[in-house]
Amino acid sequence: SAEPGPPTIRVGLVCGGVGLAALAIDSGGLPDGLQAQKICFDSGSDAVQALVGGSIDAFVGAGEHVVDNRAKGLDVKGYAVVSEAPPYSLVSAAGSGVHGVGDLAGKSVAVTAPGSLSDTELQKATAEAGVPYSGLRVVGAGTGATMQAAIGKGGAAAGMVSDPLLTTMLQSGAFTLTWKPDFRYIALAVIAKPSWVNDNKPAMQAFLQALRATQDKANADLPSVLGAAKQQAPTLDPTTLRTVVAATIAQAPPKLTIDDGPYRDTTQVLTQVGQVQPDKVPSFTDAFDFSLLGPQ
Amino acid sequence: MTESLSLRTARGAHRAGPVPGDDDTRQPSDAGSALLEQDQREANRFRRTVLVGRIAVAVVVLGAWQLASGRLVSEFFVSSPSEIVGRLVQLVGTGQLWPHLTQTLIEVGAGLLIGVPLGVALGVALGMSALLSGWLLPYVMALYSLPRVALAPLFIVWFGIGLLSKITMVVTMVLFVIFYNVYQGVRNIDQDLFDVARSFRANRWQTVRWIMLPSLVPWLVTALRLSIGIALIGAVIAELIAASSGLGYYIKLSSNLLDVTGVFAGLAVITAVAIVLDQALGYVERRVMRHHPEKQH
Amino acid sequence: MTESLSLRTARGAHRAGPVPGDDDTRQPSDAGSALLEQDQREANRFRRTVLVGRIAVAVVVLGAWQLASGRLVSEFFVSSPSEIVGRLVQLVGTGQLWPHLTQTLIEVGAGLLIGVPLGVALGVALGMSALLSGWLLPYVMALYSLPRVALAPLFIVWFGIGLLSKITMVVTMVLFVIFYNVYQGVRNIDQDLFDVARSFRANRWQTVRWIMLPSLVPWLVTALRLSIGIALIGAVIAELIAASSGLGYYIKLSSNLLDVTGVFAGLAVITAVAIVLDQALGYVERRVMRHHPEKQH
Amino acid sequence: MTPKVAVRDLRVAYRTRTGRHLALDGADLSIGHGEFVALVGPSGCGKSTLLKVVAGLVERSGGDALIDGKPIDGPSAGVGMLFQNDALLPWRTVHENIRLPLQVAGGNRAEQDVRIRDLITTVGLDGFADYLPRQLSGGMRKRVALARTLAADPDLFLMDEPFGPLDALTRRRIGAEFLSLWETLGTSVLFVTHDVDEAITLADRVVVMSPAPGRVLTEFPVPLHRPRDVRELRFTPSFRDLHDAISDALVAPSEIA
Amino acid sequence: MTPKVAVRDLRVAYRTRTGRHLALDGADLSIGHGEFVALVGPSGCGKSTLLKVVAGLVERSGGDALIDGKPIDGPSAGVGMLFQNDALLPWRTVHENIRLPLQVAGGNRAEQDVRIRDLITTVGLDGFADYLPRQLSGGMRKRVALARTLAADPDLFLMDEPFGPLDALTRRRIGAEFLSLWETLGTSVLFVTHDVDEAITLADRVVVMSPAPGRVLTEFPVPLHRPRDVRELRFTPSFRDLHDAISDALVAPSEIA
Ligand SMILES: Nc1ncnc2c1ncn2[C@@H]1O[C@H](COP(=O)(O)OP(=O)(O)OP(=O)(O)O)[C@@H](O)[C@H]1O
Ligand SMILES: Nc1ncnc2c1ncn2[C@@H]1O[C@H](COP(=O)(O)OP(=O)(O)OP(=O)(O)O)[C@@H](O)[C@H]1O
Ligand SMILES: [Mg+2]
Ligand SMILES: [Mg+2]
């Protein structure tokens, strides 16, 4: 790139909770003097618009954004996969009589926001259980306390919850697990515009390497990243934090790279729920480029 | 030059142009039909000019948007008027729009019905009592400046994800706007008029009805106008955070699907609702103002 | 009974109590030091009562909150004043608060500096021209009622994630509140005063400065008061959507972490800012109003 | 018998930004039942202030003010005040402005309308019932205010330059009208005017106030029999003498100053 | 020579909610350079309207109105209007209200202050410079308005009942003051008053208007030499005669109606 000085990168995140990208940035020691700036977004779609508009350089978000936008002809690509486990599980209030997805027919079910990943997961869950999705009353209930209130106070028979709230809620005994995703899905990928990456290879490379390094460090010595994790979730007690960080690290694929298996699973879900036309689905190599991650 | 500074609502004669005199009819309250006809003509001409200009503004803005879209700016960001219209037609045709629209309207309506009287009462009370306002005013300001968006999650926690939390949100938005205008309005009432009412020994309620409320009309009009917009915003914000229907829900859904056309279609409906409510308010205003001193259209 | 209906700001003598006459000093502008001392005493007593009541309100509300928290309501949902104070102390102590606070203040300040003059100009222009307002008013209403939250992503695309998009957001919030109040204010100016200015052949600018702006003072005060709150809200909303610092960022982060204490700590800071700005405005208002007809404290 | 109004050693000190402004300093006045008292005095001497004290609209800083022997403490029943500035409700038509005191009293609207139409005729505003105050001339507004006060049917009239901006003819016509009304009703009247002729023509007694801060300087009983012929009166010698005496009293203090 | 003001066949029809209200219907008037014309007529006959037309504040519906031979089209330079209601800026003190026309003209503030203090003395308001209009009595407000008009130093004065709410003494004092000012300056004056005495005392010519809708009925030259001694004048026989003639003219049309 033509730009002098240290490489910089503006990274969009949906903040709240522990993530590998945030751990990498917060634990410091980014390679090559990389300056990384975290920008917190309210939702993935806001961040994607900012990415396409050039307000941010990279975004760590769901793989569907790559698929969707490439299908729409927008030039975005995935450069690493940070999590291949769908994050949301369905939770019901204990004693509500809901034991499985089959019990939800015709009831209110809470997702974080309509059209979001949790909604996609719900559609997948209902399809698996043979419950008509259109028969549900889907409620957007946000994340965190609002979601917990929606489920706990009977606003919804079940709701989509992710960690760390998931762990907390289940530990409290007031809630039971109704459904847990058992498929692979590109839940978090590092997304950027190839045009920007071309002009800023060193920055992107350094950032991706930092992610890899953090992953390795965590795998080798989990406590070494707990300090950075504490920054992101200062209110979690140490044991829960440890559990959550361990889960986060476990969800990341080896070397942050996937083959086309999980990609196919992902696109299959998206076509199944009608979010992408089957004939518009981009090929794996078109959607992802792991070359900048360094030696495999 | 300074002439144009006089209010557009200047007293009649400011606008009266010379007309041929017809001196023979000396009726005190009639100035000849030529003059009246001319007034009529002028009024009609004015109404036409307004309408034409108004349409021109819309045409220019929408036209520029349509032309820019896909050329100057990516359609991904700004959609285009034709697409939005297409979507609206589809939403109306399939009947998808109504549940969202009625949901939002119910929230707005209920919020206004509660928030407006509450705000007026609060404004009157604090406007009239130096002690009450000394005690409460700073806190009112504090509450007003709380970002309701940030409180929305708490509202949902406290009032559930149903209608109640949305109406509460609308009320908290509307309340303050009404309050501040009424409060200032009360403090600006002509003391002489209160003296008149007192000297005739009007009781409290009569004074409120005959002196205070009519004096507040211009302030209330502004407050209501501001309320309509802010009530809609409140309802949508609440629906963005947590909802299963409503225009805010539809916008959020579209936004998450990166469907900018859907977002704009939702916004267009909100805008239309606002304009309709505003025009209705304008109609009421003209009826009330007919007897009000300062302004007549 | 009706007596109390007269404004608290009633002309002086309404409040003047009988004092022993000291008929020997017949100075036209001095009514004896006994009376003046009594006025002073009354003023002091009033100020004390206000202060005591104000503190009492805070104590009662915070006390009830503290007591209810963990007893009537789960602390998870409402935190508690003592926890919030603890958090604030910590935020200040570690210096974490300042970057957030200054960021938000800069956005609010810049937004007000741009939005207020713009709103005044628009209000004056549309208030003075029937044609302009006929053309534009419905669209102003439409724009005003657009939920800015829904537009925030577009702001980010157009104006980036930096200061500019936040300031724009604040401006779009402030603009309309100022506009509507000024617009209504302009339409309520006493036509006689314009006539006076015209008859002295004051030019346009002089008329604006000497007649229009002073007449608008009560309206502007309300508008500014509403603006402070709404500017803060605008800044926070923008920061909620996308930010890397600012009070809104801090609140959002806390909210996502289910850290209700953090949310309330952020809200408390906003509230404090609002109160400080409001008091500053009140001070300016009293200085200006000293020469204004209707109200004096 | 206690007088209708008794004012003793009245002091009023208005609050101003910088302290207090002494408007009345030891004013004394008494009005008998059914008496018509005219109040004259230099501009700014406190005539309006005195009326407002009796109307219960301005508090005393010292001294006594009683109506029917009871200390004044807020507006009393049966007292009708006509303000120096007309103080009409700007959003009400002439007709509706006059309705105000009738509305306070309550009662049948149709009857009110009849009464209002009568009053409009009395003050010579036929045809202007539906005009707003700002569409009227200064004199017409004053007449509306007069009609409004008449509508209240008080037994004590407090009138602050009621005929100020009226031309001589209208003034005399309405003055005569008011006089004959007063003569049939037997109410008490305190009447501020600048027109010494008018004061003598109408009143039983003319009270002269000193320049500010006001006190009552002197007073003149008017030894003219009633009913009076307003038009002829002013050419009688006793009228001339009284006029000169009052004018002199008005001039005296400022000649000294 | 063209007259200072020429009004011919003037019609003014105010817009009202229901149509038009004819306030002036064929009024004719002319004022010579340096002439002092008084305008009298029944309440509501259109006197204020006529003044406002000459001031360029109200548009004509028909007829001509010229100043120095040029049709009036908005306020002209050198025309000073004193409004019937005082129309003071309520947020300005007495001193600052009087400053208004000086501010328009621009110039040195200190010089303005000197001028303003002079004017305050002229209208007898020493000590009230820092009062707000609402802290003044009706007569005092009028005097502020007068001072403000004087400050503009116009060569055509349009005065709408300038001395209305003033007591006889103040009225005569300020009237005399104004008269001597006029005599030195040689400006033209159009002066509305109800007081026929005042009209005769001050004016070169008294113009009488008909009841509404107004036109000029007749006019009377005042054959009194100048400078006039305001206090003595009214006891001369020619004064008495003129007074009676004007009063009769005022009465005449309504006697017929
Ligand atoms: N609200 C007020 N605050 C302060 N001073 C006041 C107030 N009202 C009146 N005054 C002062 O009190 C004095 C008497 O006023 P008042 O109106 O009673 O006079 P007045 O005799 O009615 O005069 P006029 O004949 O001109 O109407 C004046 O000097 C005036 O400046
Ligand atoms: N803005 C207005 N709209 C409608 N009619 C008006 C308006 N202003 C004045 N008029 C009418 O015009 C007529 C003349 O009014 P104007 O004020 O000129 O009378 P005037 O001779 O000054 O009376 P006065 O001696 O009582 O002041 C009145 O009948 C009045 O009702
Ligand atoms: Mg007075
Ligand atoms: Mg007039």
UniProtKB/TrEMBL annotation, chains D, E:
Pfam family for this entry, one: ABC_tran
UniProt KW DNA-binding keyword: no
GO molecular function, one term: ATP binding
Domain ABC transporter: 7-236
Keyword Cell cycle listed: no
Source organism, top-level taxon: Bacteria
Keywords annotated in UniProt: ATP-binding, Nucleotide-binding, Transport
Gene3D superfamilies from the UniProt entry: P-loop containing nucleotide triphosphate hydrolases (3.40.50.300)
Protein name: ABC transporter ATP-binding protein
Originating organism: Pseudonocardia xinjiangensis
